[in-house]
Structure formats: C-alpha cells, structure tokens
Design goal:
The protein has helices spanning 15-25, 41-51, 117-138, 155-163, 167-170, 209-215; strands at 2-7, 29-33, 55-58, 65-69, 74-82, 93-101, 104-112, 141-147, 165-166, 189-193, 197-203, 221-227. By secondary structure, the chain is an alpha+beta fold. A six-stranded mixed sheet has the order 3-4-2-1-12-11. A six-stranded mixed sheet has the order 5-6-7-8-10-9. Helix 1 (15-25) links the parallel strand 1 (2-7) and strand 2. It is globular and about 40 Å long. GO terms for molecular function: endonuclease activity. Keywords: Endonuclease, Hydrolase, Nuclease. Residues 4-218 form the Endonuclease/exonuclease/phosphatase domain.
Length: 230
Amino acid sequence: MRVATYNVRGLKDSVPALVRVITAMRADVLCVQEAPRLLYWRARRRSLAEAAGLRTAAGGRLGGVAVFVAPRVRVLHAEHHVLKIFLGLEIRGVAIAVVECDGTRLAVASLHLDLDAGARARHAAEAMTLLERAAARFGAVPVIGGDINEQSDAPAWRYLAGRLHDAYGHAPVGDGMTFTAREPRKRIDALFTGPGLDVLGCGGVAAAREDLVAATDHLPVVAELAATGS
C-alpha cells in the first residue's frame, strides 16, 4: 500500500498541476495539510480529492488538515480534533482516519505543526495521544503524515520518531528534501509508521518538475508499505 503526505498551500497555486502531482503519487491514503478551510471548504476539498481519483475520509475546517483515500480503501472511522490553542498562533488540528487496505488496518493522522517550537512540541504529543487511542480502539497500526515545520534534529521530530519510525530514515529514496519545492534544501515533511509495517521505500514522487514547482511550495513524501511478514 502507498501512504503519502502533502502540504497543498490552500490551493493558492496551480490546481491542475496539483491534481497531476497527487494523481502521480498513486496513494491509497494521502495526508493533506493546508487543505481549504474558508469559503466552500468542504466542496473544494471534495473537488480536489475527486479530481485525483480519491475521496475525503477525515478532516474538519479548523487546522486545515485532511485525509484522502483511494476507492479500494475502506474507511472504518474518522475523527478531527482541534489541538491546544495558543494565543497569537494559528489554530492547529489533527485529522484521523482508521482505514483498511489489503487486509491491514491503519490509523492515519494528518498533522501540521506550528512555526513556534513550544507549540510544535505540545501539539505533537497531543496528536500522538489521540492517534494511539484511535489505533488501540480499532486494532490498527498508527501512521502520521505531516508538515512538521522542523527538521529531524529538533525536539518535536525526535519525539515523533521516538514513538514511531521515520519512514524515510528506514528506507530512503532520493535526497528526502521537501522545502521549498523550487529549491528543496530542508526535510520538514515526513511519514512516521508504527510497528507491524515494513517500509519498502520512502521518498518523493515521479512527477514533472514543472508541476511540482507550480503546485505548491512543498514537495510530497510517499511511502510504500507492507504488513510485516506479508
């Protein structure tokens, strides 16, 4: 199965290019950050998902996060939470979808952490607690996809990688850089996977460079996963 994460920058750039990039991912599950959250936000998310052959599985307006899934994926449960609000900072949220694909259950969270280090640390821990609760309830493997807004040597990233596996760190494909799309020099977007999944490969997507640059300011991360022992 293929799980991906992508910050789509509120569809402020070329939507046709964005659709082509998402289609090229061939993702079974896609974690979206900066999904539309203002006027007609539900319809705009649905339109984006459907244009790429997906459907919306989870996500509320506040926080701008969502989970899209492919037609073959069964959605068992969905929830959305607003994370602790910090005065003067953006409202952050986590979207969680419990899904079944190829006989494997995943609890997948889409997360967009703040630019403020303290908020990032608090929200990472809060989201992990919510995800682990959903995963335990449904007997699913936890997975987080998100824009972490820091690199792998920073506290929130280290916390997430300490509870789950940094997919790219386990099976890297390419240089892993995700920001900016035009001049990628930082790895701030990631997928973290729980025990019970083997990471066969994790990296970018084989899409046209002009589409990657035109679609948004981040590059996507895509992981090929398999149930351990399958």
